[in-house]
Amino acid sequence: IATLYVVATPIGNVTDISLRALHVLSLVDAVACEDTRNTAQLMTRFGLHKPLIAAHQHNEREAAETLIARLQAGERIALVSDAGTPAVSDPGARIVDAVRAAGLRVVPLPGASAAVAAISASGLLNDQFHFIGFLPSKAKQRDTMLQQLRNVTATMVFYEAPHRIVECAAALAAAFEPTRQVVFARELTKLFEEIHRCPLSEAVAWLNADAHREKGEYVVLVEGVAEAEDAQDAEAERILALLVAELP
Ligand code: SAM
C-alpha cells in the first residue's frame, strides 16, 4: 500500500545500512533524496537502481507535492538524507508533515544517527539529553543561545562543522563552568574515528594538539549543570527526621 518510508542511512561506514533498509529500498517505486549523486552512489554500492527524486531543503514544499501525488497514485516511496536519520538536522520534516496531513502512511526505518551514536559511546552518565544540533553561525546569536542553555541539567548534544570546531569549543568553555565534561565524537564509524572526553577548560588545547582535529565531522556533548541540592527539600527532610525520632 502507498507508504512513505523514512529510511536512515549510514553516517560513514556503509555496512551500517540495515537489512530492512536494503529490503525497502529494493521494493519502493522511487527514492526521494537530499542529493541525488550521493544517494545514487549508495544505491549502486548495493546493486540497487531506482528513480531518484530531489528533495532538499530548498525545494521541500514542491517535493512534498510531487511525493503526495505519487503516493496518492499508490506508489511506495523511500525518503533518505545524505547521512543518518532524515529530519534530524536534515531535510525531511516538512515532507513528512505534509504527507501525514494528506492522510497518507509514514513508516520510519530506524538506523544510524550521529547524535545517538555519540551518546552511546560517551560514557556520560545521564539518561536525559537535550538535542540542539547546529548552533547559529553568528557569534552573537550563538552566545545568546548558550547563555539560555546554562541551566540545562541534561547532557547537551551539538553538531558542528570542522572549520568551526575550535571556535565552538572556545564558546562552550566561555559559556559553561570550565569543570564540566565535554566529549568530542569525531568521524564516527569511519577510519579516523576518535572519541575524547575532557573538562571544558582543556577542550581548545586538545583540538589544537593535532592539525587533523580541524577536519572531519563532529558531535559535541556537554555535561549539563550539576543539579543544585534543593535547600527546601533538605530542610523538610531534617524536620521530618526530628519528628520521626520523637514518635513512640
Ligand atoms: N541526519 C544526520 C544524523 O542523523 O545524524 C545528521 C545530519 S547533519 C546535516 C550532519 C552533522 O552530523 C555533521 O556536521 C556532524 O556534526 C554530524 N555527523 C554526521 N556524521 C557524523 C560522523 N560520522 N561522525 C561525527 N559526526 C557526524
UniProtKB/TrEMBL annotation:
Task: Report domain Tetrapyrrole methylase positions.
Answer: 3-203
Alphabetically list the UniProt keywords. Cytoplasm, Methyltransferase, rRNA processing, S-adenosyl-L-methionine, Transferase
Its biological purpose is as follows: Catalyzes the 2'-O-methylation of the ribose of cytidine 1402 (C1402) in 16S rRNA.
* Identification of the protein by name: Ribosomal RNA small subunit methyltransferase I
Q: Which reaction does this enzyme catalyse, per its entry?
A: cytidine(1402) in 16S rRNA + S-adenosyl-L-methionine = 2'-O-methylcytidine(1402) in 16S rRNA + S-adenosyl-L-homocysteine + H(+)
Coiled-coil annotated spans: none
Q: What is its EC number?
A: 2.1.1.198
Q: Which residues of the full protein are shown?
A: 24 to 271 of 303
Q: Taking the first listed entry, what is the main subcellular location of this protein, grouped into a coarse class?
A: cytoplasm
Q: Where in the cell is it found?
A: Cytoplasm
Provide GO CC annotations from the record.
Answer: cytoplasm
Stated family = Belongs to the methyltransferase superfamily. RsmI family.
Which GO MF term does the entry hold, naming one? rRNA (cytosine-2'-O-)-methyltransferase activity
